[in-house]
Design a protein that fits this description.
The chain has 248 residues and is α/β, with parallel strands linked by helices. 40% of the residues lie in helices and 23% in strands. A 5-stranded mixed beta sheet has the order 2-1-3-10-4, sandwiched between helices. The protein has a 3-stranded antiparallel beta sheet with strand order 8-5-9. The longest helix is centred in the C-terminal third of the chain and has 19 residues. The N terminus is likely disordered.
C-alpha cells in the first residue's frame, strides 16, 4: 500500500512538476517616505502579487515604522530587499558584509529632505542648538553638508538621535526645536507655527538617492517581480485622468 501511494506521488510530480515544490516566498520591507509610498500602492492594488505570480514566486511586503530598524532587519537576514538611500546602503548593509544590488532608483530627493527650525531663518541659526535627527543616516549626511556649506561643523551643534516615527511630535512640543527629516514628517514639521525650513536636499542635487535595494544573491525572479510592479505603478501615476489622480 505504501509503495502504491509513493508511486502515485511520483507520477503526480512527473505530470505536474510544480506541484511537488512549494512556491518560493520572499520578504521585502519599506518605511514611510514619499518616494517609497508606491510600494504600498503596488501591494494594496495587487500589482506586487501579479508580478510575483508572473515570475513563479510570492512576495510579502512589510512596513517597518522605524527606518534604521528596517535596514538592520535587512542586514540581519529577515528581508531579501529593502527601501533605503544610497549612503545608508553603504553604512549599514555593506559594512555588515551584505552584498547588495541597487534594483531601482526611485528618486533623487530634490527637496524631500530638509532642515527645519523654530526661531531662526538660516542654517547659521543652528549654532549652539540641539538638532534632532535619525543619527548616522541620510539626515546626518545632509546636516553635515549644510553646515559645511555655511562655514560650520558638527562641533557647532549637538546631535540628538530621534526616531523618524517620533520626530514630528517631538518637534511640535519643543519651543526651540531644530530637526532634520524627510517627507512625510518633513511636511508635518514645516507646517508647525513658527517653523522655517532653512535647507533642503535640492541644494545638493543628485547626492541623495532613494532606492530599492535587493540582496545580490537573490534570484532574478524576485528582481523582475519588484521591477515589474514598480514600473506598472509608475505608468498608472504618469497617465492622465482619474486613475492617475486616485493613485497619487
Amino acid at each position: 500500500m505504501h509503495k502504491l501511494i509513493g508511486l502515485i506521488a511520483l507520477l503526480a510530480a512527473a505530470v505536474l512538476p510544480g506541484a511537488a515544490l512549494a512556491q518560493k516566498s520572499y520578504d521585502v520591507c519599506w518605511s514611510h517616505y514619499t518616494g517609497w509610498e508606491p510600494w504600498a500602492y503596488a501591494d494594496e492594488k495587487g500589482l506586487l502579487t501579479k508580478w510575483a505570480g508572473k515570475n513563479g514566486i510570492s512576495v510579502r511586503l512589510t512596513l517597518v515604522n522605524d527606518y534604521v530598524e528596517s535596514i538592520n532587519l535587512y542586514t540581519g537576514g529577515k528581508f531579501d530587499a529593502c527601501a533605503m538611500t544610497n549612503m545608508d546602503a553603504l553604512t549599514i548593509p555593506a559594512v555588515g558584509g551584505v552584498d547588495s544590488t541597487v534594483l531601482i532608483v526611485g528618486d533623487f530627493s530634490n527637496g524631500n529632505d530638509g532642515i527645519v527650525l523654530k526661531n531662526g531663518k538660516d542654517v547659521k541659526a543652528l549654532k549652539g542648538r540641539s538638532v534632532k535627527l535619525v543619527e548616522f543616516t541620510v539626515s546626518h549626511y545632509m546636516l553635515a553638508r549644510a553646515l559645511e556649506m555655511n562655514g560650520m561643523t558638527e562641533k557647532d551643534i549637538k546631535v540628538v538621535n530621534t526616531s523618524d516615527a517620533d520626530i514630528a511630535a517631538v518637534f511640535t512640543s519643543d519651543a526651540n526645536a531644530a530637526a532634520v527629516t524627510w517627507n512625510p514628517p518633513l511636511q508635518q514639521v514645516r507646517n508647525v507655527k513658527g517653523a522655517t525650513m532653512v535647507f533642503d536636499s535640492s541644494k545638493i542635487p543628485g547626492e541623495i538617492m532613494d532606492l530599492m535595494v535587493v540582496k545580490t544573491k537573490a534570484p532574478d525572479t524576485l528582481k523582475k517581480a519588484l521591477a515589474g510592479a514598480w514600473y506598472e505603478v509608475m505608468k498608472v501615476m504618469s497617465d492622465k485622468g482619474k486613475g492617475a489622480n486616485d493613485a497619487i
